[in-house]
Amino acid sequence: MFQLAKQILDECGGKICKHCLGRKLSKTIEGNNNIERADKVCDEFNINLDNVDCVICDNVFDKLDDELYKKIDDKINQLGIEFDTFLVGSRLDGDIQKRDDDLSEKFNLEVETIKKEINRLIGLGIWQRYDKEAEFERQDIVFNVDLRNNPRVKIQINPLYIEGKYNKYQRGIPQTKWPCTKCKGKGCKDCNFTGKQYPESVEELISEHVLKLTKGYEAKFHGAGREDIDVLMLGSGRPFVLEIKEPRIRKLDFKQLEEDINKINKDKTAYHNLHPCQRSRKAEIKQSSPDAYKIYKAIVKCDEAFDENKLVELTKLNEINQQTPLRVLRRRTDMVRVKHVLDLSYEIIDDTTFEMKIKTEGGLYIKELISGDEGRSKPNVSEILGVNAICEQLDVIEVSEK
Q: Final residue of a domain: which of 31, 56, 81?
């Protein structure tokens, strides 16, 4: 059992610390930790490794002391951060890692690396002091400890993700912030030096309040699709995820947050069912499932009286071949997309106007379905009625859950 230990001691000339020796023996000598394994070796060979100058790690483990944890504590207090989960990363002198790897390779050992042991021990110390859990997959913060020369501590604050749904009750509000087309966001006379094309957005009407509460650095809005600036978002709302970067405060009263934001934004926007979520939700809400659908209410205006009998033909609309609309061609790939109308009903308002309620697969452009978009959308309402028709007003009244 101690043959490997003797070989390692000989290789190092007896100058190896208990951490490094115990680590190499983790699969040959039983023990609760590396120190306990090394102590068994010391007892067996009647040697003392307590104050040895380790030729493997240069006694880097001596730096995992009260002074290091004071630096960690000072950094936490300086940033004023809240966290429940954490991860530890470390930086070591490259020569130390090489010597550790070389020793394992010489004796064909598949054991924990020196870096992993250091991260584990620092993590254990943080857990003991703060009663927080180490988490490898999803963590609130990451402690980056540089042990080269004088130890330094940096803290990486991971984003906070908030999921919810929003309604938009006022036209003229875009979903996200639009940079001014003249100055590209730099600020000019045309945008009153705001750098924005529009004074507010669905994103900003929630994000500025959440940033203030979380003391975050920046917010990014991820919506499950988007409606045009002149379109309302009604019904139960459109799903979204708000990403808060570098939040120092993570524990929010989401119910109170909803009440406060909705009161401030009354008659403009409303936000519902706010709750924390995982990063993966960003992509999930953007992916349309085969069963995803949207329901719209459109006011259709024709340039001359339509034949009421032809309205019935609209209810038979099914497969739509829609080439990328001219109005979005500058930012979307020019291609033909095949979408389906799932249900359609109408109500006549006057001889040139009617209201249309339409249920479609996600991704179908309703304005172009009505106008025809110079023949890029087929079939379309205009050609079926035999008159030029436009969407005078459009509301989204339901977005299906993904």
A: 56
